[in-house]
Amino acid sequence: MDKPWILLTNDDSVDSPILIPLMRALRDVAPVKVVVPAMECSWTSKIMSRFDELDVVYKEVEGETVVTLSGYPADCANAGIFSIFHSRPSLVVSGINMGDNAGLAYFLSSGTVGAAVESHLAGVPALALSQRFDSEDYNCWRNERRLTDEIQKNLSSSVEVARQIVAEVWSRGLPIDSDLMTINMPPKVDVNTPRKFCPIARTSYGAFFGNVSDFHKIQYGHVGMPEVTDNLVESDTMALSRGEIAMSPIRFSPYIPPSDDDRVRFEKVPT
Question: Considering the domain 6-267, what is its CATH architecture?
Answer without folding.
Answer: 3-Layer(aba) Sandwich (3.40)
